[in-house]
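Hi, here's the filled form for the chain we discussed.

Project: internal
Contact: R.S.
Residues: 149
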Amino acid sequence: MFQTTSNLKTLREALSDHMELSEYFLGMHAFYDGEVVFARDVVQVNIEFSPFPVDFENLWDWLREQIRGSPAQETFAYETTFGIEDEDDPVMEKLIEMTQRSANTIWMIDLAHQETPEAGRRFVIVTAPDEKRAQDFRDEFHGRDVAIS
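And the returned structure, exactly as it came back:
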């Protein structure tokens, strides 16, 4: 899950392109202290019309503001895939579990559309509030395939 690094620029471009599609699914979730603290799922189904107008810049500014922390904060970004039609999501469960008794916040952003139902793009953004917690995260997870139970 933490093997393929990404960055916020890649997320921004993917999200912007994704929202131009006439049909798409967008899922945004944030986890902190073992809880879901934000969840928003959007399904855009619009075959006959052009894409619904969304003020992408405001959406992006809002997301950046949520991710932004103190000057000591470190942000990690990863990209993976997820099964669009899977009923269970053990990766999401693992991400929630990882935030228990942790000061880190994890954002999970899912992008999918009808043309590729076998796999959607998933971005995982981890914010660590200080250098110690960032190093703890690096030591335990960065670059590793985390076991999902």
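Let me know if anything looks off before we file it.
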